[in-house]
Specification:
The protein is mainly beta. It has one helix at residues 76-82, and strands at residues 11-14, 34-37, 46-48, 53-63, 68-73, 84-86, 91-93, 100-107, 113-115, 120-128. It catalyses: dUTP + H2O = dUMP + diphosphate + H(+).
Length: 155
């Protein structure tokens, strides 16, 4: 396990109406990501049609230490079994954002997918995100690759 800087923690604030949902948590000792769950009404699940997108609320806000971000990543099981994934993977939650964390999902499968209250819909991963100095220059140093991209190094 990598060392977490002393005194740092990820703080979650529960939104009203979700006292029954667990705080995001790691499922196993070696898990890199913690589960994010759907905060939708019991009587109003989200039905995600094939090809459709939605914004699923989690019922939590988060405070992330400066210099870090929370990446919102797909759950591999949802992607494999149902074709449901995070549209903007990985989504980024900035350290200064304090609104409700929502997950942008898309159904790439062939059948409707129903998102119910408490379903694990994504995972959060905390990553370093320093703000580097951004400098405009006249020229960039040459590399062997140059401007080659999009398959230029082979398939």
């Amino acid at each position: 396990m990598s060392a977490i800087p002393a005194g740092l923690a990820i703080r979650f604030k529960r939104w009203e109406g979700n006292a029954d949902l667990p705080v995001p948590a790691y499922a196993t000792v070696g898990a890199a990501g913690f589960d994010l769950r759907a905060h939708v009404p019991d009587d109003a699940p989200i039905v995600l049609k094939p090809g459709a997108r939605c914004m699923a609320p989690t019922g939590f806000s988060v405070a992330i230490p400066d210099g870090y971000e929370m990446q919102v990543r797909p759950r591999s099981g949802l992607a494999l079994k149902n074709g449901v994934t995070v549209v903007n993977a990985p989504g980024t939650v900035d350290s200064d954002y304090r609104g409700q964390v929502c997950v942008l999902l898309i159904n790439l499968g062939e059948e409707d997918f129903t998102i119910r209250r408490g379903d694990r819909i994504a995972q959060g991963v905390i990553a370093a995100a320093p703000q580097w100095p951004l400098v405009e220059v006249e020229d960039l140093d040459a590399t062997e690759r140059g401007a080659g991209g999009f398959g230029s190094t082979g398939v």
